[in-house]
């Protein structure tokens, strides 16, 4: 992907790259990884969720319960808030370095392509009012040792999200974390519904987005050879960086991960329409 870097700055020690709007369509070799547009169902389709049945929520694993951390989501429901949608409302939280936020996942082994349609707003506004309030898709290396044996420097994950990052405008955020060192990129977004896609083929990961009525655009490509065969894959949401940034500035990781921040100013409501899993097409 060709994109002009408009600004490179430091967010409390984290390198952030702000990009102009990506304009490149998928190259042929990337198209072979991420397409077709509507792939036929395969064995991974058993992981799909159209969020039409409230009982389907029980089929998702919660990161917090799976690894023994407090639940940092104020509300997660299917159909109760809005019929036919997964509604995800996080407390003040953030995914960055060793810091955790709400995450629902299914375990996926091998190559995959996961796609979702999501709309991200504030509680009363089209764009969230708090910085770094976004929701989307993550693929993460599991940590079955859990909170009791937790150590710094072990996080391996990648995600693409929609919402707002460092301003009061719609943005797309991509973030790649290797051994708990995060590098994030921000590019212009739009209000309303957006489709997000995360593709794995071997060590190659592609992050794509498609606004309503537009074509797929490659937002980021990363090589991640250290990722294990089986990953946690699913929706994430986080909000209100300013209320919790002191934990990051002073490197208070365990203190942050071990509590639920109910005294912040969270402002994010994510509505997921559906999520679908497929195997990516083979390279020519």
Textual characterization of the structure:
- This protein has one domain: Jelly Rolls (Sandwich).
- The longest helix has 9 residues, at 241-249.
- It has 284 residues and is mainly beta.
- It starts with a strand and ends in a 6-residue tail after the last strand.
- It has helices at 28-34, 63-67, 241-249, 253-257; strands spanning 5-11, 14-19, 61-62, 73-78, 86-90, 104-109, 112-121, 133-140, 157-164, 171-178, 181-188, 193-201, 204-211, 217-223, 230-238, 269-278.
- The chain contains four helices and 16 strands.
- 9% of the residues lie in helices and 41% in strands.
- Strands 1-2-11-10-9-8-15-6-3 form a nine-stranded mixed beta sheet. It has a seven-stranded antiparallel beta sheet with strand order 4-5-16-7-12-13-14, with helices on one face.
- The chain is globular and about 50 Å long.
- It comes from Nannocystis punicea.
- This is DUF1349 domain-containing protein.
């Amino acid at each position: 992907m060709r994109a002009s870097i408009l600004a490179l700055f430091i967010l409390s020690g984290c390198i952030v790259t702000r990009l102009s709007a990506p304009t490149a369509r998928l190259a042929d070799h990337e198209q072979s990884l991420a397409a077709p547009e509507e792939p036929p169902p395969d064995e991974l389709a058993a992981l799909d969720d159209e969020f039409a049945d409230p009982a389907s929520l029980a089929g998702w694993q919660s990161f917090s319960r799976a690894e023994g951390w407090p639940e940092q989501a104020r509300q997660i429901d299917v159909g109760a808030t809005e019929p036919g949608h997964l509604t995800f409302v996080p407390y003040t939280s953030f995914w960055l370095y060793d810091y955790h936020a709400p995450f629902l996942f299914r375990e996926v082994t091998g190559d995959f392509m996961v796609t979702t349609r999501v709309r991200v707003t504030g509680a009363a506004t089209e764009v969230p009012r708090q910085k770094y309030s976004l929701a989307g898709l993550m693929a993460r290396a599991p940590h079955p040792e859990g909170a009791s044996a937790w150590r710094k420097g072990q996080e391996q994950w990648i995600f693409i999200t929609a919402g707002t990052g460092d301003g009061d405008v719609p943005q797309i955020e991509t973030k790649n974390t290797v051994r708990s060192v995060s590098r994030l990129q921000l590019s212009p977004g739009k209000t309303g519904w957006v489709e997000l896609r995360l593709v794995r083929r071997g060590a190659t990961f592609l992050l794509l987005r498609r606004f309503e009525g537009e074509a797929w655009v490659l937002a980021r490509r990363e090589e991640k050879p250290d990722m294990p065969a089986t990953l946690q894959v699913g929706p994430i949401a986080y909000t209100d960086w300013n209320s919790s940034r002191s934990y990051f500035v002073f490197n208070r990781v365990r203190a942050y991960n071990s509590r639920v921040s109910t005294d912040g100013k969270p402002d994010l409501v994510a509505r997921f329409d559906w999520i679908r899993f497929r195997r990516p097409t083979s390279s020519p």
